[in-house]
Amino acid sequence: MLLVLSLLTLLFSTVQSTPSIYTTLLKKTNENIVLLAIPTCTELPEDFEGEICLDVEGWSEENEERLCFNVDFVGSGLPPVGFVGSLAELLSKKGSHKITLTHLSHTHSFYIHNSEHLLPSPPPYIFITSIPYMLIMSDHSLSIDYYVLFEGDENAGRGEVRLELTNGESFGIPIKKSGSYDVKLDRKNRIDPGTHSIKLSIHSSPAVSTIFDRVLTPIEGGPNGVGRLMMSKIGKDVDLGVCEGACGSVDLGFGNSVKRKIMYVGMLKYDGQKTIWLEQFKSLNRNKWDMQFSTFMNPENQVNSGEIIKAIEDAGVEIKVKGLPSITEEDLLNTPCEFTEIIKKGGGVNMSIIVTCLLQRLNTANKDLNKLTPKWVKETWKGIVGEINEYEPDILVFANAREITDTLLTVSASLAEKKPKIVMELPNLFPAIDLTSVDAIVAPSHFAALHYSVQEKVDEAGGGIKVSVVNPGVDSKKWNYGDEVCEKKDIYTIGFVGRLSSEKSPGLFVAAAKRILRRNEKVRFRIIGEGAWLEYMLEMVEVLGISSHFDFMGGIYGNELVKLVGELDVILNPSLRYESETFCIANIEALAMGVPIVTFGIGGIGEYMVNGYNGIVVEDFESVERVVEGLVDGVLEVLEGGRREEMGRNAIRSVDEGGFRLEDNVRKYELLYEELLRI
Fold first, then answer.
1. How large is the angle between the packed helices 585-592 and 272-283, nearest 10 degrees?
2. Where does the Glycosyl transferase family domain start and stop, copy by copy (predicted)?
């Protein structure tokens, strides 16, 4: 059978318009054929008829020839081109391959990358599409069109194309007969901004993979885009309808004679929210507040939990672990709930179905824990409620996880013998639960507090919930810039600080690094962080031939992190997913050290970034080309434009004068907690 795959809007996939070389290859049945999908080339004219030539690195030089063919350019991309023989074998080999496309004086280069050798022996007569590597697109959805031609009807119905995404989802697409097929890969009709990976395979053939970036459209990321709330443009004296910490006047002397208890509930994951809580653990008055951190999953089942456990213990706060019961297939069969879609398409358990069942069983028992059945349901509810009853917190704090699982905690709190005040933090937007039982929402930025996904939930709950903005703060004793700010250096260091994950757009960082090196080779790139995308970043820098300029430091914490950040000349933060970037504490920590930042300024980042003052804010999304070039120009303006020292000192001022110090943060939280207990 023959398989053609191409990326919609980036690639042209209509078989009728393919060049003669492709039509000829379709008739061959005795050779392997590699089908190369060619990306849209913005450097080429809008429409033309003429000769296109391809140079394949490692083949064109050896054979002293290039592949040329005539084609009518259709604007949206070129048709796939098929290769046989030694060139097909080269393109199917493990590793990266650079391809240069030429038309008259216009050239465009791109890469393909194979994680393993693609063509098995003997030939299976299957087209395998080598999808271009590290494409950048602004479309909300990605569609894969493919054309299948069977050698005979006896093969009909036996084929399947399998697609796997980095978020764990996978799709099996059956092939029933010859013809055109289409599948849309989206999440509720959209692909989130960030760096993504897709693997495609047919039968037992090795997977073809590619990495691409989805950037913002002008309406999302432009100067007045929906992903922005630049406080430097609005002004902090404008009444935005939310509170700064407490919503009323509170006497800080309240509660000195009675120690109040705060229970923090979450996963053992060292993230921005835990950083905020750790500062509270260390700074809240212990004569007034007793604190406990609770988690409902055993540490051995939580990835990289050791660092946060140590940090919490060093802060003098007790960690309580209450593992919930495991659930067997027999348990589910003996539970009167609907579990038909309990397993996700890509594998793993659909927790929303489990939570729905737990809530149904609770209502059936009229919320009497002793009447709950079956055993796993009773143990789950009694485990969470029992933990709350044992500690008897006055305030229960949790972070919005955008999942219905948060409901288990809020409902359990309502069933406790002593009902605590409930505070929901907003490290993420789009809360998925009913907020009726929540007493206060704490947002790290005005962008998060005013976001429609939050305000709609507040309105649904009756509108009586306090929504407070408490900006994260940095410890000036720890994040101290010292005596020198941005001293002159022979080699500059450009940093990435944060979790290596899809939403942080690591692909854009690497793409920008490649272009920065074309204009200034006296730079190094320091990656501080860990995560699922480390392996992909290592692959990307290797493919682009820039790995010698990169230092991957891994997950660094404490004083060592302060030292490494202080050595940076500029931070490049390419994050674009404004719906999850509600503040970014790593940026504030860097600014406190006098390190300027180049960023898109989306989401909560606009709370403190001022373009041209403490860094560069990129707002040009008119083309995908300008997105990357904007980052490159911004970095080089800081490093080469003579403004590095000025921006570094302004960065420190923006933290000192903007209310982003630790003492400001702790004072606002304490005001909020005391106001809650007065109600």
1. 60
2. 488-651
Q: Which of 39, 206, 225, 67 is nearest to 137 (CA)?
A: 39
Q: How far is CA 121 from the centre of its chain?
A: 39
Is residue 207 within 8 Å of 199, Cβ to Cβ?
Answer: yes
Q: Helices 272-283 and 662-678, interaxial angle, to 10°?
A: 80
Angle at 429 between CA 318 and CA 408, to 5 degrees: 50
- From first CA to last CA, the distance across the chain in angstroms is 71
Amino acid occupying residue 575: S
Query: Of the candidates 533, 540, 592, which has an alpha carbon nearest to the alpha carbon of residue 565?
Result: 592
> Which strands sit side by side in the sheet containing 106-114, from one edge to the other?
67-73, 48-56, 95-103, 106-114
HEC string for 5-72: EEECCCCCCCHHHCCHHHHHHHCCCCCCCEEECCCCCCCCCCCEEEEEEEEECCCHHHHCCCEEEEEE
Report which of 426, 420, 422 is spatially closest to residue 439, judged by C-alpha positions. Answer: 422
- How far is it, in rounded angstroms, from Cα 29 to Cα 27? 6
Strand order across the 492-497 sheet? 550-554, 523-528, 492-497, 570-573, 597-599, 615-617
SS3 call for 379: helix
Quick one: CA dihedral 99, 100, 103, 107, positive or negative?
Answer: positive
Mean pLDDT confidence for 37-57: 64
pLDDT tens digit sequence for 71-123: 654 444 555 566 667 777 787 788 778 888 787 777 777 777 777 776 654 44
Contact by Cβ (8 Å): 503, 580: yes
Q: How many CA atoms lie within 13 A of 244 on its CB side?
A: 11
| Helix ranges restricted to H, 327-451 | 329-333, 351-364, 375-391, 406-415, 446-450
**CA nearest neighbour of 619 among 604, 602, 603, 636:** 602
**Strands 2-7 vs 142-149: parallel, antiparallel or unpaired:** antiparallel
pLDDT at 39: 57
What is the number of other CB atoms lying within 10 angstroms of the CB of residue 280?
Answer: 21
| Calpha distance 270→276 (Å, rounded) | 11
Of 116, 112, 201, nearest in space to 164 by CA: 201
Answer whether 608's CB lies under 8 Å from 658's CB: yes
Task: Give mean pLDDT, residues 455-464.
Answer: 89
**Strand locations in 420-460 (E):** 421-425, 440-443
CB burial of residue 677 (10 Å; 0-12, 13-18, 19+)? middle
Q: CB count, 10 Å around CB of 556?
A: 17
- C-alpha–C-alpha distance, residues 246 and 238, integer Å: 18
Half-sphere exposure of 457 (CA within 13 A, CB side): 25
**How distant, in Å, are the alpha carbons of 96, 357, 576 from that of 516?**
21, 53, 20
| Residue 442 identity (one-letter amino acid) | V
Which is it for strands 106-114 and 95-103: parallel, antiparallel or unpaired?
Answer: antiparallel
Rounded distance between C-alpha atoms, residue 161 and residue 163, angstroms: 7
Above 60 in pLDDT, residue 244?
Answer: yes
Q: Which residues of 363-399 are buried (b: 16+ CB within 10 A; e: fewer)?
A: eebeeeeeebeeebbbebbbbbbebbeebebbbbbbb
pLDDT at 533 over 70: yes
User: How many residues comprise the chain?
Assistant: 679
Tokens of 288: 């007034």
